[in-house]
Amino acid sequence: MPMMNLLVAFNGSDGSVSALRYAASLADRLGAHVTAMLAHSSHEVIDKRSRWIPKEARALLDAANSDILREIEAKFETERSALGLANALQLKEVTGRVDNVLSEAARHYDMLIVGSHADTDDEHVTLHPDRIALMSGRPVVVVPAGYDGGGGLSHSALAWDGGRAAARALSDSLRLIEDDGRVSVLTVGPRTAWPIEDLMTHLSRHGVEAVHEEWPTSHPVAPTLLGWCQKHRPSLLVLGAFEHSKFREDLLGGVTSEVLAQIDIPVLLSH
Fold this sequence. Notes:
Helices cover 42% and strands 20% of the residues.
């Protein structure tokens, strides 16, 4: 089944601009529909409903909230016009906890496309792609700020350890990669004992030309994947997120977080 219904998160950040452009390019290639969504929490430092706050102060808070959102909408309109989608793409505005809202919304689409997280994003519109991948049950493509490579997928990389998350990522990505059909399977360190040949046969039966590259346990996973992608420039890295718990990943760091912080090509995350 092809991917026909894409959701893109737009919050005005440089990453979300890249995500919108990527989504438009991908939709054009797939013949898919794109929906854009601005998810934001209430932009308040204090509860403006409190009786002791003067009416004038409440009005200023409302104006500040509105100004931020209107700036984001103006940037969206600029991008929409530049993409030639003036009548084909609308921006839905939804209020709530951003990661929760986008996770719930994503379940009604084939895929969610987001920009990479940046510490400079306004805290009331910022999102965390790794958390959304964990909560949503849908594949999340994370597009780095400044990426302009389009939605073509002539060559993809699959990080493979034989685990459940990697298998889910493979399944979620097949609908994208089987049309163009070239994948490098990358295994770093320990993986399940099941023969890698079965994976290569699986890809072949989907019409995908695959090669396997392997590194021993002595190689750190994230730097190896990042270095390989920097050298070979695939169009997409497919990555199973959080084989360990999210708490452990947040506390100690991990492959998912390290890759997302440094990579300069889109990453498809699944959990």
